[in-house]
Design brief:
Layout: E1 5-8, H1 10-18, H2 21-36, E2 46-47, E3 55-59, E4 64-72, E5 75-83, H3 84-88
Parallel strand pairs: 1-5
Antiparallel strand pairs: 2-3, 3-4, 4-5
C-alpha cells in the first residue's frame, strides 16, 4: 500500500481529547491498524451515505467510530470521532 498522509481536523482533535485516556489509547491502536492494514476486519471500514456521503467510517470500539474523508489518493483527513449516536444522530 502506498503511504498516506493523514491530517486531523480541529473538530476531530477536540473530540479526541475529550475521550477517556483508555479510549484515546484504543483510538491510537485502531488508527495505527488502519494505517498499516486499512481493510482489516476489526475496523469494519465502510463508506457512508446520505448526509455523510463521501466519508468513511472505522470502528474504534463497539460504539466509538472515527470518520474520515479522502482528499485524494495520498491524503485523508479525519473529521470526527465519537459515539455512533453523536456522529450519526440528528
Amino acid at each position: 500500500m502506498a503511504k498516506v498522509l493523514v491530517k486531523y481536523s480541529h473538530k476531530f482533535l477536540k473530540q479526541y481529547y475529550r475521550l477517556s485516556p483508555k479510549l484515546q489509547k484504543q483510538s491510537q491502536a485502531r488508527l495505527f491498524l488502519w494505517l498499516n492494514e486499512p481493510c482489516h476486519p476489526q475496523l469494519r471500514l465502510h463508506m457512508l451515505t446520505g448526509r455523510l456521503s463521501g466519508y468513511y467510517s472505522i470502528n474504534i470500539t463497539g460504539d466509538i467510530r472515527a470518520l474520515y474523508k479522502k482528499l485524494d489518493d495520498a491524503h485523508v483527513i479525519f473529521e470526527s470521532i465519537g459515539t455512533h449516536s453523536e456522529l450519526y444522530g440528528k
